[in-house]
Amino acid sequence: MNKHDAAVVFDLDGTLVDSVYQHVMAWHEALRKSNIDLSIWRIHRRIGMSGGLLVRALARELGYELDAATLERLQRDHETAYRERSKTVVPLPGAIELLATLSREGVAWAIATSAPRRFTESSLAALNVPDAVPVVTHDEVAHAKPNPDLFLAAARALEVPTEQTFVVGDSLWDILAARRAGTLGVGLLSGGYGHAELVESGAYRVYEDPADLLANLHELGLRVPRDP
Predict the structure, then answer these.
(1) In this structure, what CATH number is given to the domain that contains residue 70?
(2) pLDDT at 5
């Protein structure tokens, strides 16, 4: 029998680090550079998907035809724009303490993100993520969210059955992917989605941010102290 009774898999952007709006504005800049004028709110509604899927979904929604070269250029321009804005990305309130508490109490955890690995390095360093913690990125799976591949790979890396795994994310795409993976989704409001949206998409519980989740870990049945 595995030594872990349960495990937690975290999304990264908007869940552990405050980076959603940097991504939104980077996509907005990249799209405008290609003469695609989209409202910022439309872009925000797709954050959490992989970059390629996000662009295709937005283009399809508004009737744009994008060829492979344009898609590649958009993702490259987004990366350039995001790298400049990433200097302002910081951990969300309680994120470092939440991860440290889980580690101290022997609760297995991992990170699974739709971003390429090269996007994660500074965020992982800011969160003090130990080298032994599994980090699954888009580079390691065939399909990113809303497909379940990321969360399934994280559960395998932790050697914990999916039915004993919580997925913590900030977007509808996180919760959808969690349901498809057979895990229990937990929503955070720190990515800009509303409480009702996350609940309606299947979230078991919804918290404001990592600090709020830390204060209420007992609601997930995790055997950790309420006052770390």
Answers:
(1) 1.10.150.240
(2) 76
